[in-house]
Amino acid sequence: MIKIREMFKIIKKIIMEKPKKLLLVGGGHAHIFLIKQFALKPIPGVDLFLVSDSNYQYYSGMAAGYVEGIYGLEEISFDLRKMCRHSGVEFIKGRVTGIDAQNRCVTLESDEIVPFDILSLDTGSDMAGGNVQGVVEFAWCIKPLGNLIALRKNFIGLTAYESQVVIAGAGAAGIEMAFALKALSDIMKKNIEITLAHSGNLILKGYHENVREKTMRKLNRDKIKVLSNHKISSILEKDIFMESGKQINYDFLIWAAGPKANPLYKSSGFSVDKDGYMIVNSYLQSVDYDFIFGAGDCISFSEFAYVKKVGVYAIREAPYLYGNLLRFIRNEGLQRYIPQKNYLAIISAGEKQAIMQYQGMAISGGMSYKLKGFIDCRFMKKFKFY
Ligand SMILES: Cc1cc2nc3c(=O)[nH]c(=O)nc-3n(C[C@H](O)[C@H](O)[C@H](O)COP(=O)(O)OP(=O)(O)OC[C@H]3O[C@@H](n4cnc5c(N)ncnc54)[C@H](O)[C@@H]3O)c2cc1C
Q1: pTM, entire model
Q2: Is a pLDDT exceeding 90 seen at residue 196?
Q3: In sequence order, what are the residues at sequence separation of 6 or more whose Cβ sits closer than 8 angstroms to the Cβ of residue 132?
């Protein structure tokens, strides 16, 4: 008798149990992988949602190629709405401004509340230096990458034959932009002077010395000026003021000052590292809440301090994120992810040239660019399944 009652209870539980809500925030690299997996293999008993502040996700590896004119916008972008439609994921357009882990919901900028049972975060990073006076009003910020559409259009629209272009930041992104704009200005047959201004004493911080040397040689060949130890303190319509007291003029200013943490994690009460990135364990799981996971630039590993804010890691983490979300839903043991220390980095140097770094080796030229093009196009082809 008791057994039959127990059985009814179990059957009732199965029938009545609501599907679990898996909410993805941000359409970053790892989530692109997840959305494709959902298209290939739907997860029974799970409702899927994606909140993204943009309908499109742009692939940063091809961003410089787009600015230069090698790739069209369609070639470097994922249509998130379409991807979601083909994968049974409900797309919600909005920017998440708060995460309430206790009540398992997120708040959007529009004040809409989106509930979840399990949350996965892949929101990337913001651009540093946005608080420098005048940046918002006068500079073209390269992040979010969607900004590159207007940046390119306005650069092409520069009317003066001789224009001064300044790029703030000499990391890989700033350098790639400098080379791309130089190549584009040659196509436009304009005499555009490009200057890279940055606060450090060396370009390409974190790269090998021989990569830096090859890059400096190409910058010199392209007549791109480098101003090291020049920290920008404020900007007016045509003038840039440095902390040193120096002042330079510009007609077009690009802001490429490197990554900065999204304030969302700190303000939502998560454990964050010294820079404000959400701390996760080696299962890509928040150290505060076991039902919250993350990947890409927005996370910081409690164990692996060497992981950099580059897309390579977001891509490598994706299958682990996917696997661990499934395992968590099924109450199975999670799989440990150990990030690699070495990875191939290829900096686009304009005119279908690139500088490649792998384990201390630096190779520059057309072959490096071909390899970069092959890897980037393969990535787009693999995930543009819709
Ligand atoms: C110009 C440039 C070139 C680069 N080139 C390379 C390269 O060649 N190789 C490389 O490895 N790395 C490169 N990087 C670094 C690389 O772009 C990042 O490391 C990578 O994009 C991080 O991926 P992600 O998945 O963490 O997030 P992202 O790709 O940044 O995606 C995050 C997404 O989340 C959305 N989002 C953010 N906040 C919210 C929110 N609150 N609510 C909703 N949605 C939100 C964003 O709009 C975005 O679509 C480059 C960066 C730049 C700027």
Answers
A1: 0.94
A2: yes
A3: 232, 233, 234, 235
Every domain range in the chain assigned CATH 3.50.50.60: 15-125+261-329, 127-259
Residue 311 CA to ligand 1 center (angstroms) comes to 7
- Please give the average per-residue pLDDT across 156-176, as a whole number: 93
Of all protein residues, the one whose alpha carbon is nearest to atom 7 of ligand 1 is: 61
What stretch of H or E contains 242? strand 239-242
Ligand 1 atom closest to 177 (CA): 1
Q: Is the pLDDT of residue 287 over 90?
A: yes
Q: Is 314 in the pocket of ligand 1 (CB under 6 A)?
A: yes
Q: Confirm or reject: Cβ of 98 under 6 Å from ligand 1.
A: no
Residues 236, 275, 213, 61: what is their CA dihedral angle, to the nearest 10 degrees?
-80
> How far apart are the CA of 215 and the centre of ligand 1, in A?
24
Each residue of 266-280: pLDDT tens digit?
A: 999 999 999 999 999
What is residue 385's predicted lDDT score, i.e. its pLDDT?
Answer: 86
What is the chain's mean pLDDT, rounded?
Answer: 95
Quote the pLDDT of residue 8: 67
142 lines ligand 1 (CB under 6 A): yes
- What whole-number distance in Å separates Cα of residue 369 and Cα of residue 286? 37
Residue 351 near residue 218, CB atoms below 8 Å: no
Residue tagged 């330079």 (tokens)? 248
Give CATH superfamily name and number for 15-125+261-329.
FAD/NAD(P)-binding domain (3.50.50.60)
Reading the block at residue 55, the tokens are: 């309908």
| pLDDT score recorded for residue 10 | 61
- Ligand 1 contact via 53 beta carbon (within 6 Å): yes
Strands 20-25, 118-121: pairing is parallel
Closest ligand 1 atom to residue 32 Cα is: 25
CATH T-level topology, domain 127-259:
FAD/NAD(P)-binding domain (3.50.50)
CA of 28 to the centre of ligand 1 (A): 6
Integer Cα distance of 195 and 192 in angstroms = 10
Protein residue whose Cα sits closest to atom 50 of ligand 1: 60
Q: Which residues contact 103 (CB under 8 A, 6 or more apart)?
A: none
What is the 344 CA–ligand 1 centroid distance (Å)? 18
Whether residue 309 has its Cβ less than 6 Å from ligand 1: yes
Residue 1 pLDDT greater than 60, yes or no:
no
